[in-house]
Amino acid sequence: MKPLDDQQQAARTWFESLRDSICAEFERIEREAGSDASFDYLSWDRTDPSGEPGGGGVRGVMKGRVFEKVGVNVSTVGGTLEGEFAKTIHGAAENPGFFATGISLVAHMANPHVPAVHMNTRFLCTTKRWFGGGADLNPPIPYEADTADFHATLKSACDAHDPEHYPRFKKWADDYFYIPHRKVHRGVGGIFYDHLESEGDAWDANFAFTQDVGRAFLDTYPRIVRERMATEYSDDDVQQMRVWRGRYAEFNLVYDRGTLFGLKTGGNIDAILMSLPPLAAWD
Predict the structure, then answer these.
(1) How many domains does the chain have?
(2) What is the model's pTM?
C-alpha cells in the first residue's frame, strides 16, 4: 500500500483513538455489572489483487455479561478495486485505485431491553475524497426516551456544523436502514451520510464533523446501556429479541453496502461478518 498522506494518517489516527475510547467505556460497563470481560484483538493483513500488500486492520470482539457480543473494528486498506465493482464506487470508474480507513461497530446485548446499535465512520479516497458513516439504534423493545436521547445527541452534533445535516442525514438513515422484503425499518434510526466531499478546505470541516459524530455516539449510547441493563426480562422478551435479530441479519447480508465493500475488497471475513448476532430466530 502507498504511504499515507497527512489527511489519510490523521483520519486513521482518529478512528483508532475512537476505538480505544469506545472499548474502554464498554469494558467499564462490564465492570459495573460485575464482569471481567475484555476485548480480544486480532490483527489481520490484506493482500491487494495486484499481489502487493494492501493494508489491514484490527478486529476487536468482547462477549460479556452486558454485551452478549460487541465488535469494534478498525481498518486501513488501499490498492486497486477490481472489475465492475470499481464502477460502483464514487470516483473509481476511470481509475480503480483506492484508499479507505474507518471504524465499524455493532453491539448485540444480553438484555432485550438494551438496544443493539451500529456505528461506522470512514474516510475514502479514489479520484475523489469523502467522509461517510453514521449511527443507528436497533432496540428489540423500543423505549421512546432512548430514541429521543439518541436522536437529540446526534442532532446536536449535526447542528454544530450545519442545520441541514440532521434532517438530511436522518432521512438518509430512514431510507437506507429499511428492509424492503419485510417492509419494516431495522430499528428506530439515527443518521447516515456518504460522499461528503472533502477536497481543499472542506476536508477540515468534514473531518471535524465526522469526529463529532463519533463523540456523540460515545456520549449517548453508554448512557442508554446503563439505564436499561438491569431491567428484568422474560423468556418471551428474549424470543422477541432473537426474532428481531433475524431481521437485522437479513439486512446486513442482503442490503448493507459496507458488508459488500469489505467482501469485494478482500477484507477479513470474520471482521466483516462480526455484525451478525450470536443467536437469532425466525418465526
Answers:
(1) 1
(2) 0.94
